[in-house]
Amino acid sequence: MRVAEVLSDLTTLYLADPKAALALVTARDAKEGTASAEVITRHEDDDPDLKRAKDLVQLHAEVKMAHQDESGETPKAARKAEKQDDYKAQRRADEAAANVAAVQKADRKAHQNKRQRA
Q1: Calpha distance 112→118 (Å, rounded)
Q2: Is the dihedral of CA 50, 52, 58, 61 positive or negative?
Q3: Region labeled Disordered — which residues (predicted)?
Q4: Taking the alpha carbons of 82, 88, 94, 100 in that order, is the dihedral positive or negative?
């Protein structure tokens, strides 16, 4: 069960905006009547899981930024768009081929009718 929670959290961090994800794993300043910010910061530095999570978020943001092209799309989004365009182009080609076949069939039928009348 704990593994599922961790995977869910990682998925959430992956899908979130890098700044928002970093805010999720960053400790906030302490308020009046609670532990001091210094203690939280010290605990934050000692927690290896929290440090790994921050590193993961930072790495993800850096990799995502490095793989974006001028249009702001990631290669994955660009490939998806290309596949959709390829699918649409193939569909248009199939429809055109079907139309050509229908016209050819009609021409053959008209030619046969002319032969039978003659």
Answers
A1: 10
A2: negative
A3: 65-118
A4: negative
- Sketch the domain layout of the chain as residue ranges: 1-66, 73-118
Contacts of 74 (CB under 8 A, 6+ apart): 64, 67, 68
C-alpha span between 21 and 10 (Å, rounded): 10
Q: Where are the alpha helices (DSSP H) in 1-118?
A: 2-15, 18-25, 37-46, 48-66, 75-117
Q: Are residues 12 and 20 in contact, defined by beta-carbon separation less than 8 angstroms?
A: no
Q: For 49-97, what is each residue's pLDDT tens digit?
A: 888 888 888 888 887 777 666 566 666 777 777 888 888 888 888 888 8
Left (φ > 0), alpha (ψ -120 to 50) or beta: where does 33 sit?
left
> What is the rounded distance in angstroms from the CA atom of residue 54 to the CA atom of residue 38?
19
Round to the nearest angstrom and report the end-to-end CA distance of the chain.
Answer: 83
